[in-house]
């Protein structure tokens, strides 16, 4: 398969990639200092990292005794000495978040620098959590096609709540008017997804994205699949260390279930209790893997993870950064079919993505041109989404 070139920040100065590397990364780095009580040494490390972007150059990691150090040595080697703007954008971002892990001595101190943001994100989406809990508890009485599609859409729009772009103090982005939003879904394979789940949905895997409200939506979908009997087993795959500000780790899943179980409102508590019961009976299982924090493309997935996912009936890939990994963060033509890029992955894949980066595929001819006139920010403002399914025969 020949791949188009990877996106680089230096490609276009008016691009979201350029703005991210040239401005946003150092802002994200400095923002965690006042939100944590780090030692002066760690504060110094973070200030140095922020000052190094974007004119500094790529260097090897210093925390060479960490479990992922050897892998990162190999990822970094081809880009040594290049500037943050010249290297592939996806590498620059995943490397940046790994440099923060080094700067805060995470693997020794285990302090999640984004914990405050994650907590605020969950608390600030209370009214949406209330609404979705009521809908879910009601929908379990007759778990039909309409209900299943409603949970797919809730899981999609939950991805709008990305704290790396819109910090929790900027207000509650979880409000959803699902009916009106249907036209914002640029490719919608919901119906085909229900067909697949009804035919063979025994095991479903979620490659989750943001903790907080999005994770709650994903856990509601998982609960719906298990309680309705559509699935017997659900695996949640999280990140091995804090990254992209709000991305979820296994700890964040357990914290969220705990938050729901201890909630004073019965409708919300009922969701938490069911989730805990699924965990206790190993119907819901939690996993993490360093691939999800690496700069690698989907087709570079290590064989152990590939073999594990091959046993699944459906892998649900959440969010924009994971979608960029599916596409190798490359300049595909917007009409390239999704399944063509996914190619021969060992099982069926469903991508649920709200658009927050300048890449896309699986659109109809003329659709991108029309959207460009309608809303020049259509690719990055998170107001549009895709529900794209690639079925493994
Ligand atoms: O939380 P998500 O959906 O993966 O979005 C991550 C965001 O961060 C980015 O990496 C830009 O910093 C884009 O992928 C996207 O805008």
From TrEMBL:
Superkingdom of the source species: Bacteria
GO BP annotations, alphabetical order: DNA damage response; methylation
Cofactor(s) needed by this chain: Mn(2+)
UniProt entry keywords in alphabetical sequence: Hydrolase, Manganese, Metal-binding, Methyltransferase, Nickel, S-adenosyl-L-methionine, Transferase
Hydrolase as UniProt keyword: yes
Domain called Damage-control phosphatase ARMT1-like metal-binding: residue spans: 34-369
Keyword Lyase in annotation: no
Catalytic activity: beta-D-fructose 1-phosphate + H2O = D-fructose + phosphate; beta-D-fructose 6-phosphate = dihydroxyacetone + D-glyceraldehyde 3-phosphate
Any one GO MF annotation of this record: phosphatase activity
Any Pfam family hit: ARMT1-like_dom
Family: Belongs to the damage-control phosphatase family. Sugar phosphate phosphatase III subfamily.
Protein name per Swiss-Prot or TrEMBL: Protein-glutamate O-methyltransferase family protein
Organism annotation: Oxynema aestuarii AP17
């Amino acid at each position: 398969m020949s791949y188009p070139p990877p996106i680089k920040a230096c490609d276009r100065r008016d691009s979201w990639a350029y703005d991210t590397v040239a401005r946003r990364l150092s802002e994200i780095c400095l923002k965690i200092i006042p939100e944590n009580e780090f030692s002066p040494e760690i504060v110094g490390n973070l200030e140095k990292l922020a000052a190094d972007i974007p004119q500094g150059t790529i260097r090897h990691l210093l925390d060479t005794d960490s479990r992922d150090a050897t892998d990162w040595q190999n990822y970094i080697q081809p880009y040594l000495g290049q500037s943050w703007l010249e290297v592939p954008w996806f590498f620059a971002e995943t490397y940046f978040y790994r440099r923060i892990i080094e700067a805060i001595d995470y693997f020794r101190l285990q302090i999640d620098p984004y914990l405050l943001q994650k907590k605020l994100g969950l608390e600030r989406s209370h009214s949406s959590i209330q609404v979705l809990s009521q809908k879910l508890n009601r929908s379990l009485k007759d778990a039909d096609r309409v209900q299943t599609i409603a949970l797919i859409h809730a899981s999609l729009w939950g991805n709008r709540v990305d704290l790396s772009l819109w910090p929790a103090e900027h207000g509650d982005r979880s409000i959803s008017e699902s009916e009106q939003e249907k036209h914002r879904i640029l490719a919608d394979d919901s119906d085909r997804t229900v067909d697949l789940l009804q035919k063979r949905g025994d095991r479903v895997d979620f490659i989750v994205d943001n903790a907080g409200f999005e994770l709650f939506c994903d856990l509601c979908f998982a609960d719906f699949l298990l309680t309705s009997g559509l699935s017997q087993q659900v695996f949640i795959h999280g990140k091995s260390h804090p990254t992209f500000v709000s991305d979820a780790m296994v700890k964040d899943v357990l914290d969220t279930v705990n938050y729901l179980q201890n909630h004073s409102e019965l409708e919300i508590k009922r969701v938490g209790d069911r989730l805990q019961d699924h965990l206790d009976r190993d119907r819901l299982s939690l996993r993490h893997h360093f691939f999800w924090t690496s700069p690698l493309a989907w087709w570079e997935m290590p064989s152990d993870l590939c073999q594990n996912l091959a046993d699944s009936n459906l892998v649900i890939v959440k969010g924009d950064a994971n979608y960029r990994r599916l596409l190798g963060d490359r300049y595909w033509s917007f009409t390239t079919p999704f399944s063509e890029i996914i190619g021969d992955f060992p099982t069926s894949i469903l991508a649920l993505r709200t658009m927050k980066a300048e890449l896309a595929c699986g659109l109809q001819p003329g659709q991108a041109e029309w959207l460009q006139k309608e809303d020049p920010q259509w690719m990055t403002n998170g107001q549009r989404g895709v529900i794209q399914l690639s079925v493994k025969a």
